[in-house]
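HUMAN: Ready with one sample?

ASSISTANT:
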Amino acid sequence: SPSFATMLRSLIRTAHPARAALRFSSTRTFATQSALRDRMEDLVPQEQERVKGIMNKYGNESLGSYTVSQAYGGMRGITGLVYETSLLDPLEGIRFRGLSIPECQKQLPSAKGGSEPLPESLLWLLLCNEVPTQAQTESVTADLAARATLPAHVEKMIDNFPKNMHPMTQFSAAIAAMNTESEFAQAYQDGVHKSEYWKPVYEDAMNLIARLPLVASRIYRRTYFDDAPAAPNPAKDWAANFANMLGYEEPQFEELMRLYQVIHSDHEGGNVSAHAVRLVGSALSDPYLSFAAGMTGLAGPLHGLANQECLKFITDLQASLGDGPYTNEQVASACWDVLNSGKVIPGFGHAVLRKTDPRYMCQREFALKHMGDDPLIKLTAQIYEVVPGVLEEQGKAKNPWPNVDAHSGVLLVHYGFTQEEYYTVLFGVSRALGTLSSLVWDRALGLPIERPKSVTSEWIAQEFGSK
């Protein structure tokens, strides 16, 4: 006789025929199978076997020991995750599937007439662990364009938000509300086999990536200009469309948005936003809910506010110095004034990196190439020359070199993009590329729910006090 679960699913389909029509099957809901999906179909079985072999061969090897201080200290330095899409090297910075930022700039396809890598090409790299061709990159652009529609209830929801609601609150809520469209949630309800989980998760991930620029631009235009974004142009790439929907149509700004989305896309799996997506996804929450969780983490000031703090430092420094140009000695003296007042210089130093962040350097190169006469850009360039020496002389910073946040804000201000509290939304859109690619692989590799052990302070005192 049929099981209770089978009977229940049958009743649900009968009661909700429209929703039943959305349920996942091996046939996609789109007219044609995409090149990226086809490639994933080839790669998943190969990677499953490779990881199985690693587990069989090295499963009992130790990844290291850790201390009580690390348990209290945010688990820094504890290796406890396998995260396939990126790895942070303390000397070379982030590597996306083994490629450094300069290598990505050199090897990944760019837009016609442009020089910065297309985010679509990075998405292929993150999912497939290979550099795509121009044609493969264009196929991803077309696939994302075909998916770029917002549910009516999400548009209405955003339009009804109070304008004083923080953009990240609007962003996170709208993402969660889109889970009405989740193919994974429907597939799970319909009893899809766990070996097939990755397929509807992939569809959700691609749909979400395609829709995020629509969500983000609607929040931006409505909150700051009381209007609606322009419709996306299917002839343009993902980042260029995002720039245009925000209201910026200069080709140079489109290039900046391509660069910005690529370099902010992923940064290992232990940071708050990436780990939140991973953790919530491990409970088999759908990608919309998982990514919304990551965005609420990114909204925290210790994670997503850094570029605004860096911009404020630079503009405050400019105000204190008066009209330029300035000598390096003047800039150094002003920086010492900041330090001697008990404050820190934001944007310098990193928890892992021990040299200048390559993500900073590529932004610096973009700025000097396209806007070297901008007074704020000139001051930022001087800060790069002066601050490391000041911090080394002070003797407190382990790493006196700038990170990605020390430059991104001034680039946006150059183009008149001055709504600083919105900057984290730009960061959030880009972070989807890495975290959702990783989430697809989490399900493809059958990774279990996360459940680390915790103890109390009393347990620690008793455990070690008796020794």
Observations:
- The beta strands are 86-89, 93-96, 99-100.
- Residues 1-32 have pLDDT under 50 and may be disordered.
- The chain has 23 helices and three strands.
- The first helix runs from residue 4 to 15.
